[in-house]
Every structure is written in C-alpha cells, then in structure tokens.
Specification:
The complex is a heterodimer of chains A (111) and B (111). With 111 residues, chain A is mostly beta strands. Chain A has no helices and eleven strands. In chain A, the strands form two sheets. In chain A, strands 2, 4, 5, 9, 10 and 11 form a six-stranded mixed β-sheet that branches. In chain A, strand 4 and strand 5 form a beta hairpin. Chain A is globular and about 40 Å long. Chain B is mostly beta strands. Chain B contains no helices and eleven strands. In chain B, strands 2, 4, 5, 6, 9, 10 and 11 form a seven-stranded mixed β-sheet that branches. In chain B, a hairpin with a 2-residue loop joins strand 9 and strand 10. The N and C termini of chain B lie far apart (33 Å). The chains are: A mainly beta (111), B mainly beta (111). Chains A and B meet through strand 5 and strand 10 of A and strand 5, strand 9 and strand 10 of B.
C-alpha cells in the first residue's frame, strides 16, 4: 500500500461546478498537509497548507483534514477553466522534511 | 525574473555519463529541495538542505549527489546516469510553512 493514495482521474466537470479532490494516507504521524496545483509543463505551486485537523479557506478553495479517518480534501467552488491542472496532495511529519506526495489528480473544467 | 531557476531545462545524455543539474533562487530562502517526478508516482524527494552546511538524504537518494554551493545555489549530480533516472526533476525552496516555490523543471532523458 502506498503511503499516500490519490485518484489520478482525469476528472472532468462543467464550469461553475464544485470540485472535490481527495487523498487518503496510512501514516498517522503526518501532521502537515499541503495541496499543490501543477499546470502542464510547469512546476507545482503551493495552494493550501494545513496543520493538523480542521478546515482552511482561501477564496474559492477550501482544504479539509480529517486525521481520524486519514483523509484530506480540497474543494474548489465555482470552478473555472483556468483551474484545469493536476492537483497534488502532500504531507509530512515535520514541516520541511520528507514530504510525501500523492500521484496527483488531473482536473479538466469545461467551458 | 523567476524566483527559482533551473538549468538546463532539457537534457539528453547517455548511460554512464556524469551530469549536473543546477538550481538558483532569489528568494533568500535557507531550505532547498530536489525532487523527481515520474508519471503515476508523483514527486519523490531526492535530497534536501536546510542551510549551506546541512544536507540530508530524501526518499530516493541512491545514484544522486548534491552540492549546496551557497544559500542561493543547490546542484544535483548523477555520477553515472542510467535509463531509469529518466524523469522530470524539480528544485524547490521554502522559507516558512506557507511559502514554497518550485522551479520550472528539467526534463532528463538517459539513453
């Protein structure tokens, strides 16, 4: 079993839809949780960072962490074609050390 | 100018050759990382450095070495390249828990 699992997609949604992206993990020691967006032929960019459990909102993006279920989510409201990218989750026990990434989910938002 | 630059952007080499990938950053960050990305596997950490005198192995350091020449520069070397090192390589920096920057990547093909 991989430490971090993520459905690779592709996931296609119409413009304006609410998108839900998810990762599960097996290591209960993870405390730091990140979501990255990666456009084609570009480096990843950090979207959201969360420490421990709970929710965090930034504009149209909401990150949720449920440590009891070892499950994290990223919600995108009012999705736009410009949100079309691969979304990577990542997590670590101590920040800055040994991030473990999921394989990424490819999202297409259709106009 | 880009905050994190990588050279070269593309490289083709032959099995057994030594190559170096270079990374420079203008963010003034102490922490720097090297990752490789393979389809379906996500990003995997090769090496990381928290300052010029601090170098640490990541998940997949075998076959690689690094040099932190200055705060702004972090190089990755493949002493004797092999075909399964064909991948997309990313350098990244971060200065705090919510700021992290990736370079544009280097596409390496080992024949």
């Amino acid at each position: 079993q991989k430490e971090v699992e993520q459905d690779p997609g592709p996931l296609s949604v119409p413009e304006g839809a609410i998108v839900s992206l998810n990762c599960t993990y097996s290591n209960s020691a993870f405390q730091y949780f990140m979501w990255y967006r990666q456009y084609s032929r570009k480096g990843p960019e950090l979207l959201m960072y969360t420490y421990s459990s709970g929710n965090k909102e930034d504009g149209r993006f909401t990150a949720q962490v449920d440590k009891s279920s070892k499950y994290i989510s990223l919600f995108i409201r009012d999705s736009q074609p410009s949100d079309s990218a691969t979304y990577l989750c990542a997590m670590s026990r101590n920040y800055g050390q040994n991030f473990v990434f999921g394989p990424g989910t490819r999202l297409s938002v259709l106009p | 100018d880009a905050d994190v630059t990588q050279t070269p952007r593309n490289r083709i080499t032959k099995t057994g050759k030594r190559i170096m990938l270079e990374c420079s950053q203008t963010k003034g960050h102490d922490r720097m990382y090297w990752y490789r990305q393979d389809p379906g596997l996500g990003l995997r950490l090769i090496y990381y450095s928290f300052d010029v005198k601090d170098i640490n192995k990541g998940e997949i350091s075998d076959g690689y070495s690094v040099s932190r020449q200055a705060q702004a520069k972090f190089s990755l070397s493949l002493e004797s390249a092999i075909p399964n090192q064909t991948a997309l390589y990313f350098c990244a920096t971060d200065g705090s828990q919510e700021t992290q920057y990736f370079g544009p990547g280097t596409r390496l093909l080992v024949l």
